[in-house]
Amino acid sequence: MATWADFAAAEPDLAAAIHKLVCQYGPGLAYLATVRPDGGPRIHPVSPVITPAGLFCFVLPSPKRHDLDRDGRYCLHSFPPEDSDDEAYLSGHATPVSDLELMSTLATTMRAAPRVDWRLYELSVDVALLVHHDTPTTATHTVWKPKTRLPPKPRQNGPCTKPVDSVQ
Predict the structure, then answer these.
(1) CA-based nearest residue to 23, from 59, 53, 55
(2) Cβ atoms within 10 A of the Cβ of 111, count?
(3) What is the pLDDT, as a whole number, of residue 115?
(4) What CA–CA distance (Å, rounded) separates 32 from 72?
(5) Higher-pLDDT residue of 110, 33
């Protein structure tokens, strides 16, 4: 898994284009997809924070926070721009941040209320995708994946968690 900084160093133009789409309305705005306990998708609007240090997201107590705590896989998709159908997509793994100085800095920068029960997550980047619509019927897809990939972790949820003897 790569950090946002790793990704931005490897593909600065792609990272800048994705940053521009995610932050097109000022603060970051995107849809966060998480994995429900039954393995299905869950999607919520969020305000991701992109800094040179990383890609972060404050998450209040909610089903999406429970999903991230249980199974950190995520996908993040930009809001659609008003003047095009361009889109940005990131996926990876969300990890709770425990660095108090970083949490305080980002909370101050993003005006996160200190008495609210939010949790800060850093979002790794396993896949980055930018779709630029050249015309209404053609698009350019740019995809980035880190060179070294860790093997996927075994699933701990979903409908197929127990081995089944198919021969009765």
Answers:
(1) 55
(2) 7
(3) 67
(4) 12
(5) 33
